[in-house]
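Practice record 12: protein with farnesyl diphosphate.
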Amino acid sequence: MSDVTAAAPLRQDLSEVSDWVTLLKPRVISLVVLTGVVGLLVAPGHLHPTLAIAAVLCIALGAGAAGAINMWYDRDIDAVMRRTERRPIPAGRIEPGAALAYGVGLALASVAIMGLATNWVAAGVLALSIGFYVFVYTMWLKRRTSQNIVIGGAAGAFPPVIGWAAVTGDVTLMPVLMFAIIFFWTPPHFWALSLWAHADYEKVGVPMLPVTHGARETRKQVLVYTIALVPLTLLPWVFGFAGWVYAAAALLLGAEFLRQSVAVYRDLQDAAGRSLSNDVPAKKAFRYSLLYLALLFIALAADKAVLG
Ligand code: HEM
Ligand SMILES: CC(C)=CCC/C(C)=C/CC/C(C)=C/COP(=O)(O)OP(=O)(O)O
């Protein structure tokens, strides 16, 4: 057998593995894991490093499992939307039933291992967030209301609470503040994206805000939530959970997020109605939203490392 023929099965195996990884929405998980790790780092107390690693893996697996079940449920609309048509299920590379079994199996395993490795409060919040993403967001609200991502978005706000609870076994004010920060960050994050991705959602009848209320209202809501978010991010400092390192970072990062959201609001390209697919301010704001949340949470951890 020539080298080229011998390499073909290996290439196929690797691409199959990569499809199973894609089902977990790995790029989204990276930020979920970052916020979960920061929850774990800023919590008072100590968790054995092996158990801390297990807890982080469980957050990643649980979030990934929920993503896989989301892709199983949404396979009909994913097949029609350009952004998602090449995903493993609509592209026919993974059987829907197999993806569902994989997602449910990983979800159960992640919750069980979290409970055994740390405590059942952390495991319970992990189960709640998986349930929120799968049942509340994906199955109930996503196709029914333009407020889908506001209410359902709570799912993505739980990871720092899970990280905190893995160390302390409780949920107090600081993890609630971290939850609130991600909760208010989600609408500008998603609605900025939806301004240029609205055609896909329109095509499949998913009632995202630009589809139901138009681009102008969406731009306003991006700004309104960013205005609410920035003072909220200062509360960990106000309540004494974080010091000046975090407060300075929150102010600087927030000022830039506000600047970007004002640019999204002021953009008049769609004065007549719809946004355009090359909506530059909205694309910039979406990309910045990812950097913003990452740096804000890194600042929280750095603040604790520097100031104790
Ligand atoms: C209901 C809440 C949310 C919705 C509807 C949403 C929706 C989306 C969508 C549609 C994308 C584009 C994905 C793609 O390229 O195909 C995206 C990207 C992303 N989201 Fe969200 N998101 C939500 C919450 C979150 C949360 C809570 C996090 C993490 C804390 C997060 C992290 C990310 C990341 C890291 C990306 C970039 C992925 C990439 O590079 O492809 N999202 N989001
Ligand atoms: C621990 C745990 C369970 C965390 C939850 C993780 C998380 C980030 C939830 C929010 C979700 C998200 C990426 C929604 C996009 O779904 P969509 O179906 O609207 O996007 P799509 O069209 O790209 O599939």
